[in-house]
Amino acid sequence: MFKPWLSLKSELDDRQAMAGGKLKKERAKHTSAPYLGGISFHKSKGQHILKNPLLVDTIVQKAGIKSTDVILEIGPGTGNLTKKLLEAGKMVIAVELDPRMVLELQRRFQGTPYSTRLKVVQGDVLKTDLPYFDICVANIPYQISSPLTFKLLFHQPAFRCAVIMFQKEFAMRLVAQPGDKLYCRLSVNTQLYARVSHLLKVGKSNFRPPPKVDSSVVQIQPRKPRPQLNPKEWDGFIRMCFIRKNKTLGSIFRLKNVLSLLEKNYKTLQALGCSQSTSIENIDIGMDISKLGHSNEDQSMEMDGGSDDEMELENGDDEGDAESEVSEFKDKVLGGRRDNSKRREHLSSHNRSFYIYFHYSTRLAYTSLDAES
Ligand SMILES: C[S@@+](CC[C@H](N)C(=O)[O-])C[C@H]1O[C@@H](n2cnc3c(N)ncnc32)[C@H](O)[C@@H]1O
Question: What angle do CA 94, 143, 218 make, to 5 degrees?
Answer without folding.
Answer: 65
